[in-house]
Design brief:
Elements: H1 4-18, H2 25-35, H3 42-53, H4 62-83, E1 87-88, E2 91-92, H5 94-97, H6 100-116, H7 123-150, H8 158-183, H9 188-215, H10 218-221, H11 227-230, H12 236-244, H13 247-256, H14 265-278, H15 280-299, H16 306-320
Antiparallel strand pairs: 1-2
Helix pairs in contact: 1-3, 2-6, 3-4, 3-8, 4-6, 4-7, 4-8, 7-8, 8-9, 9-15, 12-13, 12-15, 15-16
């Protein structure tokens, strides 16, 4: 198995061939723009890595990896429109740089392109990839709707929040890994097991993201620290703080999440203090460990070499110890 930078470089080279000029430019330029904004390329790397773990050729998995990355970026283009977000990875969002209509149409085209990459596979592989992709894409949409619904609800439960991040984020990580297994013609049992590994790692990844949003280093995090607090997002940290707090503290925290001051620094610090004093910050760290360990437990039953299992475990540990 190759190292992660190798997979990243290989994938980016393949991606660059895809983003060549195409007519009409007003449809395809925004697609090329969002795809070239960078990012960790986590999902396509997992697809290539998994193909090799099951003794497949990572090059054969490049189209599946590209499908995952194009779909992921399609969801970001539409999410940014819904959130009216001005920036993505430090650059103008597609709808800000062009228009909302362009963002909608280019996003639609990306979803269709994501399906087209499966046409490069044999019928049996095509069918398995398309079936998994359809299920996953619909779950991602459901997760996004839950996220939108939560903005206007004050009774969101921990279970509901975990389901939302499972659908919005984690299922795509699981699918990325299962696609690599499908291309490598792994057994159905191994395909399902690697999906569960990826899905649980995806939940841990999102919880870690929630934690870093509040407590990350501004120098390395890559986004504004406290962004979720400013936007009054009901994250795991917030819900756990409510669960652990007295009625008086709950009211204070709910009040902080109902205001939008011009200067947000005091609000961020006050909320972070609630997260720490209530035990929510520690509970979130424990939940990250729990889902990471749950992911690792699926490795035991995988029919791959011990070396490959160790590589996956190492990858999971690196992901959970990140500060970006």
């Amino acid at each position: 198995m190759q190292n992660i930078p190798f997979y990243q470089e290989t994938f980016v080279s393949y991606l660059e061939k895809f983003v060549s000029k195409r007519e009409p430019e007003s449809l395809y330029d925004p697609i090329h723009y969002i795809l070239q904004l960078g990012g960790k390329r986590l999902r396509p790397v997992l697809t290539l890595m998994t193909a090799e773990i099951f003794n497949g050729d990572y090059e054969k998995a490049l189209d599946a990896a590209l499908s995952i990355e194009v779909f992921h970026n399609f969801s970001l283009v539409h999410d940014d429109i819904m959130d009216d977000a001005p920036l993505r990875r430090g650059k103008e969002t597609v709808h800000e740089k062009w228009s909302i209509n362009t963002g909608i149409l280019s996003g639609d085209a990306m979803l269709i392109l994501a399906y087209q990459f499966f046409e490069n596979y044999e019928p049996k592989t095509f069918q398995a990839l398309a079936k998994l992709f359809s299920k996953t894409a619909l779950e991602v949409c459901e997760g996004q709707q839950y996220d939108i619904d939560f903005e206007t609800r004050d009774d969101v439960t921990i279970a509901e929040y975990l389901r939302m991040i499972e659908y919005k984020t984690a299922v795509l990580v699981g699918a990325a890994m299962q696609m690599g297994a499908i291309v490598a013609e792994a057994t159905e049992e191994d395909q399902k097991t690697i999906y569960q590994f990826g899905k649980n790692l995806g939940i841990a990844f999102q919880l870690q993201d929630d934690y870093l949003d509040a407590f990350g280093d501004p120098e390395t995090f890559g986004k504004q620290v406290g962004g979720d607090i400013i936007e009054n997002k009901k994250t795991y940290l917030y819900l756990k703080a409510l669960e652990f707090s007295s009625e008086e503290d709950q009211q204070q925290l709910q009040h902080l999440f109902s205001i939008n001051p011009t200067d947000t620094s005091d609000k961020i610090e006050a909320v972070k203090e609630f997260f720490i004093s209530s035990g929510s910050a520690e509970a979130t760290k424990q939940a990250i460990k729990k889902y990471t360990n749950q992911a690792f437990s699926f490795l035991d039953t995988l029919k791959v070499s011990e070396e490959s299992k160790n590589e996956l475990k190492q990858f999971g540990e690196q992901l959970m110890n990140r500060n970006v």
